[in-house]
Amino acid sequence: MTAVGIDAVEIWTGNLKLDLPGTFAPEKGEDPEKYTKGLGLNASSFPDSYEDIVTMGANAAHRLMERKGLEPDDIGRIDVATESAFDNSKPVSTYVAGCLEQVYESDFHHANKGERKFACIAGTQSLDDAYNWIRAGRNRGRSALVIATDTALYARGDDGEATQGAGAVAMLISEDPNLVELSAEQGYGSADETDFLKPNQQFPSVDGKRSVQVYLARMREALEDYESVAGEVHPDDLVFAPFHTPFPGMVRKAALLAYRHITRNTEFEDELAEEIGRQPRPEAFDSDEEYRDALREYMDLLKDTEQYAEWYDTTIDPTLTIAREVGNWYTGSVHVARASALKHALEQDREMTGEQLLVGSYGSGAQAEIHSETVREGWAEEIEALNVDEQLAERYEMSWDDYEEIHDAHNHEMDVDVEEFTTPSEEFVFDGWGRMGERKYRYVE
After folding, report:
1. CATH number for the domain that contains residue 47
2. Where in the numbering of this chain does the Hydroxymethylglutaryl-coenzyme A synthase N-terminal domain appear (predicted)?
3. What is the C-alpha end-to-end distance of the chain, expressed in Å?
């Protein structure tokens, strides 16, 4: 069976930067370590006044197509995943295609275009759609372009304000991919939850504590479901585990739960038993409450063990490097985590061909998906082509006054005119409004 997966990836980060310990924390009168150690964030990326989800997505896609030498005829579908859409009818993918058609001689008139919405998991769902489209033989030899693009902004003063971010990830889904092959096996955990939502409003309503609980519960269900079709996951089976990363602090919680699960009934649990005892089993307790109390106690001990710390440092921490500097990208965050892990491997001169990633995606509302990916032979060349370090270094660092202005500029409920902080070059930009209230775009040389 021909492999199907991600052939190439490109990242486009917002052109502005907010320093969390240096700028945000002092204005809030808080300890900078609340952000750097608690949330695990150093900075957030923001869109300039001429940027939005269309420009970031189109810029990432354009760079990918140029690097791969692609023309519109090579693309059979364009799927955009976002929870920052500004139209309830016209999909963002049509805007992105319109941008790209400004710089190519041909068009995307014969490409299927759509928009996926399920909070942050929509990017992975779009990958699934593209995978199934190719597997069904409906692609006619063409590839799919999947774009995850968001402005993850919160209301001023909201608990989630420090986790904000903005950017896009473009992925080319093809047969015989260069980067990673997607597994046919998937696991899901899904339930009707109200942990995070945006009911016809710009900024989300969030129950932070509940959201963490739902995230962990759905991830556990998804992992159990994945194992029911793919077999039990062993710690030695995977080199990295990219998770959905609203902020690295939440991944620390998910990683601990995952490690407890995949070490049960293994030699790893046997080794740990000498130090902290064996994992509690529900049948050993008279009530669910007693079992949960014992489990919490075990988890508290587990996170302080050298064995777990070593696994976390090698398997999880490398997935968080980029996220620490950009914040939450909603639909793009797990795909940033994958790129971060492979970038780390390249920098460490580590051979990854044939190695396994266990990818955990999540979207509030709520659903989690677990699948595995096999790293392909061309991975190093693809990751080496990323220029994310240069993008991060070139961002304009905002003052607090700058931040207040740009936050207002991206608040759909406010009509403000904010001068751009950076000068666009070789990128798509927002160019005002059309006769029906549509957003217009142009390419700046």
Report:
1. 3.40.47.10
2. 4-175
3. 43
Evaluate whether 241 touches 357 at the Cβ level (below 8 Å).
yes
* Count of domains observed in the chain: 1
**3-class state of residue 302 by DSSP:** helix
Per-residue confidence (pLDDT) for residue 1, from 0 to 100? 75
Grouping H, G, I as helix, E, B as strand and the rest as coil, residue 356 is strand
* Other beta carbons less than 10 A from residue 438's beta carbon: 12
Amino acid making up residue 414: M
- pTM higher than 0.90 for the full model? yes
User: Which sequence positions are flagged as catalytic?
Assistant: 83, 120, 244
Residue 93 three-state SS: helix
Mean pLDDT for 379-404 is 98
Report residue 55 as tokens: 């420009």
Over 90: is that where the pLDDT of 206 sits? no
Q: Which two tokens stand for residue 406?
A: 């740009």
Q: Do strands 367-375 and 396-397 pair parallel, antiparallel, or not at all (unpaired)?
A: unpaired
Residue 308 is inside which H or E element, if any?
helix 306-311
Q: Domain range holding 280? A: 2-442
